[in-house]
């Protein structure tokens, strides 16, 4: 009885650190009740409630960063609150707020809005839990919460293409989850522990072939979630099928959750691996493949959504560069680049949604549109320039940071694979010029008749100018954000 009472006390204490997630859980229940009770004129209420729920989660996350600087284990060690996970949760909350704002512009088109917002909040809740997880069971449950909700969201265009995209996503996801779960079972069998952070105390398993197989199979699920090559084939079809706010959501929130848990897991494996085997080599190889497949495949795309899908694959490669350095500084720079990626990606998607509402789905349909409506295309051009990594945008600063951490790691270890990753990263940055600038080229240079008419004082332009200021400000003054990130003490 005494042991039970102690565990109950630990759970009670854990709740005070679990407030953002409790808000999301209560919010999901509230949205379901609104959908059941209020039958008409509920679109504005649902959007407002969803926005308030995510904003409250964000606000309590900010409070959490100021109050708790040291890691705290919750619910008998199933999850942990620390600076790294809290920062990623704030990024994901911010991305979800932007997703809800984008959805508000599609209220007339959106069906089954209560279910839609429930799925959005469920993905966000799963993402929160995933970056906080330190237990293999919790990792799997969190990933499945994200995945199952994502399968449903893919079909919210209510079209044949949406159903096909959702089915492909489900099939690929089921296989990846099964492989990952089998890998987890091997790791548990070898270590006798579900807490993967405790693996670092078991140094005898590093040379075991089963440990290597189990670790690699576990990584399959994480690489799948961030759409890293070669586990990327689902991405273009899903992006093309889903509504634009969902595409923007998929490109950021599950990816940041996946990169968060991947960082913790790969560092654990690297600490206990033997000198004759390097997990860093695997990570670098996946990053090289993602960069190359994503950028070169994007060159041949004619559909805007498919182009952004391959862009997302390439950006996963850049995020992996920061992790592949296996340095605290690299993780900090990865967080900076993740912040920039969230801002610049949504900047592009906000305008792509606006153009899609005017029937502009293919790149060729943008011909001449920029000359008659320059402002939205100028803002979107800034987003594309930042995705490329050119000054004076924060994308340049972010890539400069992660490449500098990679170079530092190369100087310390001398691994040839790090040099190859450095070279491929720079070359792929050049390649990305040729597809990111295709839409601006068609809009401003190509001749064509465009019926696009937009209001200068529009929701998209108001939101766009905020995001543009963020992209430019983080180029001219990255120290403010880096000062915050540098305070994060990454511990396993």
Describe the structure.
With 492 residues, the protein is an all-alpha fold. 75% of the residues lie in helices and 1% in strands. The chain contains 20 helices and two strands. Strands 1-2 form a two-stranded antiparallel sheet. A hairpin with a 4-residue loop joins strand 1 and strand 2. Helix 4 packs parallel to helix 13 and helix 10 packs parallel to helix 12. The model has no long low-confidence stretch (mean pLDDT 88).
Give a quick rundown of the structure:
By secondary structure, this protein is mainly alpha-helical. It has 20 helices and two strands.
Task: Spell out the blueprint of helices and strands.
Layout: H1 2-15, H2 19-37, H3 43-67, E1 72-74, E2 79-81, H4 83-104, H5 113-132, H6 136-154, H7 160-191, H8 209-225, H9 234-241, H10 244-272, H11 279-298, H12 304-324, H13 328-356, H14 369-372, H15 374-388, H16 394-413, H17 416-436, H18 438-444, H19 459-476, H20 479-485
Antiparallel strand pairs: 1-2
């Amino acid at each position: 009885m005494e042991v039970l009472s102690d565990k109950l006390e630990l759970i009670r204490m854990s709740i005070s650190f679990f407030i953002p997630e409790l808000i999301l859980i209560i919010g999901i229940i509230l949205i379901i009740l609104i959908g059941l009770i209020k039958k008409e004129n509920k679109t504005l209420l649902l959007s407002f409630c969803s926005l308030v729920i995510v904003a409250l989660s964000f606000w309590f996350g900010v409070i959490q960063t100021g109050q708790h600087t040291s890691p705290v284990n919750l619910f008998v060690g199933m999850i942990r609150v620390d600076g790294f996970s809290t920062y990623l949760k704030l990024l994901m909350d911010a991305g979800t707020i932007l997703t809800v704002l984008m959805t508000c512009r599609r209220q007339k088109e959106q069906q089954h809005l209560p279910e839609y917002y429930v799925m959005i909040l469920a993905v966000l809740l799963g993402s929160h839990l995933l970056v906080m997880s330190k237990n293999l069971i919790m990792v799997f449950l969190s990933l499945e919460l994200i995945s199952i909700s994502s399968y449903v969201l893919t079909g919210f265009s209510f079209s044949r293409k949406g159903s096909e995209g959702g089915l492909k996503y489900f099939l690929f996801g089921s296989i990846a989850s099964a492989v990952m779960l089998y890998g987890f079972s091997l790791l548990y069998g070898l270590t006798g522990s579900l807490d993967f952070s405790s693996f670092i105390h078991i140094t005898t398993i590093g040379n075991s072939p089963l440990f290597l197989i189990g670790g690699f199979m576990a990584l399959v699920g994480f690489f799948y979630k961030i759409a890293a090559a070669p586990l990327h084939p689902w991405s273009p079809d899903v992006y093309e099928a889903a509504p634009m706010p969902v595409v923007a959501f998929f490109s950021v929130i599950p990816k940041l959750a996946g990169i968060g848990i991947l960082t913790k897991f790969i560092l654990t494996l690297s600490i206990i691996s033997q000198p004759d085997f390097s997990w860093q080599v695997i990570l670098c190889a996946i990053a090289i493949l993602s960069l190359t497949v994503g950028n070169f495949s994007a060159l041949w795309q004619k559909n805007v959504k498919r182009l952004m899908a391959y862009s997302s694959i390439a950006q996963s490669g850049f995020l992996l560069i920061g992790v592949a350095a296996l340095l605290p500084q690299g993780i900090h720079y990865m967080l900076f680049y993740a912040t920039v990626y969230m801002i610049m990606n949504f900047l592009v998607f906000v305008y792509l949604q606006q153009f899609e509402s005017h029937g502009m789905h293919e790149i060729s349909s943008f011909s001449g549109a920029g000359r008659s409506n320059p402002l939205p295309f100028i803002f979107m051009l800034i987003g594309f320039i930042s995705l490329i990594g050119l000054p004076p945008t924060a994308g340049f600063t972010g890539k400069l940071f992660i490449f500098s951490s990679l170079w530092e790691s190369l100087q310390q270890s001398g691994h040839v694979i790090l040099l190859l990753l450095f070279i491929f990263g720079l070359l792929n940055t050049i390649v990305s010029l040729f597809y990111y600038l295709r839409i601006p080229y068609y809009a401003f240079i190509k001749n064509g008749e465009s019926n696009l008419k937009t209001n200068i004082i529009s929701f998209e332009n108001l939101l766009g100018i905020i995001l543009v200021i963020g992209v430019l400000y983080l180029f001219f003054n990255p120290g403010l954000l880096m000062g915050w990130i540098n305070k994060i003490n990454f511990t396993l």
